[in-house]
């Protein structure tokens, strides 16, 4: 054959391949299986952008890696339900499950270990298919091919049955993902329709899902059941484990379709949804429409470069990118029916003129997901903000983590505020701005979640509020957002007040160690501080992280933070240390702290902005290096291709921005900080009049450093762009190189600036005049107590009284230690040089029997079974050390005994005035005060005199974390030698609790024997 002919043919073939691949639809690059392995917690099923329905296979319903109901480690499927959460760290949903089977009726799902024990079926991953709006799989046990597609409010099932005289479809209302059924019912109409309700309690306390199911073929036989009792030909069933079984006979490869519509409002609402969105039986038409909808949505960002046609790595990068963009548009979800009705936060039925949304993982998504919507889908973000404001008007508060019109209270901050303020500050708010401001301000002025102390002291005391450091840092950022809106609305007093609160991050920075650090109400720094120690939600000073990760969260005042660290070079060195530290290995507390580069954790949100901070100190090449490393190593095309929870789109939104070449470090600032682009050419808002293109000349796998840049043809020396730049027709062009250009954007004019500038006068940042405290920290003593007072405000004087009265400058001034020989209340204040006065300390010193060299008891015995997680023993009940609000501090005795008996034998008979015992109440951590406490005393250990019984009411909802003391006077006529305490715990968590039915924990600390 002629060599030139071969060469020409190959050229034509390659050109054809290039044109073919370049013309491929965007949806071909989406792989919904990415994130279904590892700890991504995504689901592979069919949904539409912001769809109410997510119809997807469930392989498991319990455990952290089954938050979405599916995990790639499984080999059997329970069935296909219609609501799912994408990437959350908490589990719920899995409503209205359908499962096709053949053979005998089975009404239990079976187990992973033995799928044949129920209707569950084995499957193989090689038979699975998934694309936007579609999922398919072969059920090996039944040889049934299942295909799923969806509209916004309906799921469409296609079952290809084998030839079988006995084919079935199971509808299981008892099934759910880590929730419990409050009530449910199923009603069968005619021979092709099923309607009903599944109302459940889980992460969402009270969720309503009404449904209508239509079958394409009449069923020949049916039955309903609640539990194990089958009622053949029963038309209606109510209960908590309601199931329906529908029998057909099928020919070889016969198709039966099932359409399922849901509604939070009513069966009629579900019926309207079905009629409007799935009126016929054309599965392929619905599937094609779903694909087209996704094609249009994903086309908001178009990768122009055709280089992927001959570069497999570029194909993978496009797959990762468009799968990430796909994940960005799964949540939040439309919650209203086609007629606009939805169930609100007040459980009443409301009507919206546009769309009302649910599933707001705001702690995660305020950082990048909502800023992405602001950039490429502002009309949707407007609807989302209006939904947040509707929630506020119905409940009195902006949502924190809203799910199915329920406030879960999960995570920290009030991060609806940056989402709302971003739209207002960019002039995009198509909602009532005054109502929005009212809602933001009200959220910030509450007294719960540590805000009472934050407002009063300028910091959150670590012993009075869990996760105090994380909460303060995130409140301070949200307060900056409020201040900017106040300024825009000419509310000068509010502007100055909230700007002061935005600066309060400085109150928890310990310059002696160079970290954000917890301090107690007296201003003392956490003495056991370890910057690498991870703490979890509800415990410790940080939320799902440590001080390394949180010490850089000051997006509202980055330049101020740099100065706080000692200047640019010291700050850059600190960042270098972050990325070079030994990674976290604390498996107990670090489930969410994953995707580690040193102590940087890409797998959890507090770190997401940190790699971009080098730009602020003139070292953008380090940002370019790190962003590329994170993209290349922590996002892959595998099922475990996400290094942490997807978190309702935030993990993917980080990648989308990172691949475009910039990131919103301060989401409400209007600035996007440049990292490094991934693609040769990308267009934002493709096809619109205001489309913006990012080009990268010379980009390759090796060339990831920016050599130079132009913006709209002019030299661009800045390592940031603005929202105004990106929302106009324009072009940002980079020249890429193998070596970093350390001169580009290094000068001050090239750096982004984010600092708080006070408006010409001193801004109050919170009261930092600390109350006096007793240096030893012990207020129980035996015999004599030497009291040493101190205040962390070094130039302040201390005044005190011993009779419980309020001290003043006329009271006794503290000049040195003094002694107590009996119980006394010391009240003390600190007064600074300028006359400012601290809050008053009330120190109750109690002369009591405690463990020590002069202690008056020889032993304590009990039946306490100590929890294995907590290493303390019964001895700490009499060691003179009070446990703190951190229930893991080692000073608490933890048990879930239903009955606890404690006996104390004193060294010699003594007159005892009073008996007290302290307990922790932290219902969110399953810790409850006991049901009752009985103190008894004896002279001989045989005959006991019972003091009055102490009885407690069990709370009906979550309470503020508290330490409670229970006491009884001891007015005996003889000296006592034995003390007995009998305690009855509540045994099981109450029905309102998310962990209802599990054992409750009792945390007791000190038995106080006052004499």
Description:
With 1011 residues, this protein is of the alpha+beta class. Among the domains are: 1-30 and 302-328 and 610-664 and 666-751, GH92 mannosidase domain (GH92 mannosidase fold); 32-298, Beta-galactosidase, Chain A, domain 5; 773-847, Immunoglobulin-like; 859-1010, Galactose-binding domain-like (Jelly Rolls, Sandwich), CATH 2.60.120.260. The protein has 18 helices and 58 strands. The strands form 16 sheets. The protein has a nine-stranded antiparallel beta sheet with strand order 7-8-9-10-19-14-13-12-17. A six-stranded mixed beta sheet has the order 20-34-35-39-36-37, covered by helices on one side. Strands 49, 51, 53, 54, 55 and 57 form a six-stranded antiparallel beta sheet that branches. Helix 4 (312-328) packs across helix 17 (650-660) and helix 6 (369-376) crosses helix 7. The N and C termini lie far apart (110 Å).
């Amino acid at each position: 054959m002629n060599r030139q002919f071969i060469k020409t043919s190959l050229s034509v073939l390659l050109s054809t391949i290039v044109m073919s691949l370049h013309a491929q639809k965007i949806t071909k690059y989406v792989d919904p299986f990415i994130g279904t392995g590892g700890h991504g917690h995504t689901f592979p099923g069919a949904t539409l952008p912001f769809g109410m329905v997510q119809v997807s296979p469930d392989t498991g319903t319990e455990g952290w890696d089954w938050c979405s109901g599916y995990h790639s480690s499984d080999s059997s499927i329970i069935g296909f339900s219609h609501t799912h959460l994408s990437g959350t760290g908490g589990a719920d949903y899995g409503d209205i499950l359908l499962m096709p089977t053949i053979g005998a009726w089975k009404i239990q799902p079976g187990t992973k270990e033995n799928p044949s024990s129920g209707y569950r079926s084995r499957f193989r991953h090689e038979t699975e298919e998934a694309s936007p709006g579609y999922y398919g799989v072969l059920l090996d046990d039944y040889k049934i091919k299942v295909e799923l597609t969806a509209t916004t409010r309906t799921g469409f099932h296609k079952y290809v049955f084998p030839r079988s005289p006995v084919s079935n479809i199971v509808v299981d209302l008892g099934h759910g993902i880590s929730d419990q059924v409050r009530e449910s019912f199923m009603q069968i109409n005619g021979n092709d329709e099923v309607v009903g309700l599944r109302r459940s309690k889980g992460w969402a306390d009270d969720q309503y899902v009404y449904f209508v199911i239509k079958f394409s073929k009449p069923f020949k036989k049916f039955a309903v059941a609640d539990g194990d009792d089958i009622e053949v030909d029963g038309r209606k069933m109510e209960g908590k484990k309601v199931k329906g079984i529908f029998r057909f006979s099928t020919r070889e490869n016969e198709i039966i379709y099932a359409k399922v519509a849901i509604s939070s409002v009513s069966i009629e609402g579900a019926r309207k949804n079905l009629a409007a969105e799935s009126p016929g039986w054309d599965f392929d038409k619905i599937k094609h429409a779903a694909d087209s909808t996704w094609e249009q949505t994903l086309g908001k960002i178009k990768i122009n470069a055709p280089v992927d046609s001959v570069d497999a790595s570029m194909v993978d990068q496009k797959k990762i990118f468009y799968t990430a963009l796909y994940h960005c548009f799964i949540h939040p979800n439309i919650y209203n029916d086609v007629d606009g009705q939805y169930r609100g936060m007040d459980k009443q039925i409301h009507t919206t003129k546009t769309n009302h949304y649910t599933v707001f993982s705001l702690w995660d998504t305020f950082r990048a997901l909502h800023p992405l919507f602001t950039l490429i889908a502002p009309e949707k973000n407007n609807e989302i903000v209006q939904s947040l404001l509707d929630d506020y008007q119905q409940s009195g508060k902006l949502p924190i983590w809203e799910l199915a019109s329920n406030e879960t209270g999960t995570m920290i901050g009030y991060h609806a505020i940056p989402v709302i303020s971003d739209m207002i500050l960019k002039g995009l708010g198509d909602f009532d701005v005054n109502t929005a401001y009212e809602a933001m301000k009200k959220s910030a002025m509450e007294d719960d979640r540590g805000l009472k102390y934050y407002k009063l002291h300028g910091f959150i005391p670590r012993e009075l509020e869990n996760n105090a450091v994380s909460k303060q840092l995130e409140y301070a950022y949200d307060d900056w957002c409020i201040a900017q809106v106040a300024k825009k609305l000419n509310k000068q007093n509010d502007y100055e007040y909230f700007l002061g609160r935005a600066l309060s991050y400085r109150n928890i920075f310990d310059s002696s160690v160079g970290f954000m650090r917890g301090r107690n109400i007296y201003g003392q720094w956490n003495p056991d501080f370890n910057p690498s120690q991870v703490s979890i939600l509800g415990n410790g000073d940080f939320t799902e992280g440590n001080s390394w990760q949180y010490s850089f969260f000051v997006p509202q005042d980055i330049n101020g933070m740099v100065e706080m660290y000692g200047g640019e070079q010291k700050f850059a060195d600190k960042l270098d240390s972050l990325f070079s530290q030994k990674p976290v290995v604390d498996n107990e507390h670090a489930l969410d702290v994953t995707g580690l580069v040193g102590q940087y954790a890409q797998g959890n949100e507090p770190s997401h902005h940190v790699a971009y901070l080098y730009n602020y100190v003139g070292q953008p090449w380090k940002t370019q290096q790190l962003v590329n490393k994170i993209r290349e190593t922590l996002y892959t095309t595998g099922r475990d291709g996400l290094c942490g929870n997807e978190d309702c789109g935030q993990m993917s939104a980080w990648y989308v921005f990172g691949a475009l070449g910039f990131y919103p470090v301060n989401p409400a600032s209007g600035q996007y900080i440049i990292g490094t682009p991934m693609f040769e050419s990308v267009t934002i808002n493709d096809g619109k009049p205001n489309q913006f293109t990012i080009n990268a000349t010379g980009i390759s796998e090796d060339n990831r450093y920016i050599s130079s840049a132009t913006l709209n043809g002019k030299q661009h020396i800045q390592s940031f762009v603005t929202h105004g730049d990106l929302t106009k027709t324009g072009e940002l062009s980079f020249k890429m190189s193998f070596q970093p250009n350390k001169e580009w954007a290094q000068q001050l004019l090239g750096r982004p600036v984010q600092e708080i500038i006070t408006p010409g006068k001193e801004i109050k940042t919170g009261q930092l005049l600390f109350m006096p405290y007793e240096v030893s920290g012990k207020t129980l003593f035996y015999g004599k107590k030497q009291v040493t007072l101190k205040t962390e405000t070094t130039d302040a004087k201390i005044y005190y009284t011993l009779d419980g009265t309020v001290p003043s400058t006329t009271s006794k001034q503290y000049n040195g230690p003094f002694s107590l020989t009996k119980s006394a209340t010391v009240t003390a204040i600190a007064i600074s040089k300028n006359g400012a006065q601290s809050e008053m300390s009330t120190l109750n010193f109690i002369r009591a029997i405690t463990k020590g060299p002069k202690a008056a008891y020889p032993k304590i015995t009990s039946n306490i079974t100590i929890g294995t997680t907590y290493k303390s023993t019964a001895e700490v009940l009499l060691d003179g050390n009070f446990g703190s609000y951190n229930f893991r501090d080692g000073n608490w005795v933890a048990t879930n005994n239903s009955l606890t008996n404690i006996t104390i034998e004193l060294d010699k008979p003594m007159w005892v005035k009073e008996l007290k015992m302290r307990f922790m109440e932290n219902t969110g951590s399953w810790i409850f005060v006991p049901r009752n406490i009985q103190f008894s005393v004896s002279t001989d250990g045989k005959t006991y005199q019972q003091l009055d019984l102490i009885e407690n009411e069990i709370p009906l909802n979550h309470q503020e974390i508290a330490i409670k003391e229970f006491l009884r006077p001891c007015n005996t006529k003889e000296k006592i030698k034995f003390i007995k305490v009998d305690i009855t715990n509540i045994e099981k968590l109450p029905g309102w609790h998310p962990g209802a039915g599990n054992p409750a924990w009792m945390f007791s600390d000190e038995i106080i024997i006052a004499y």
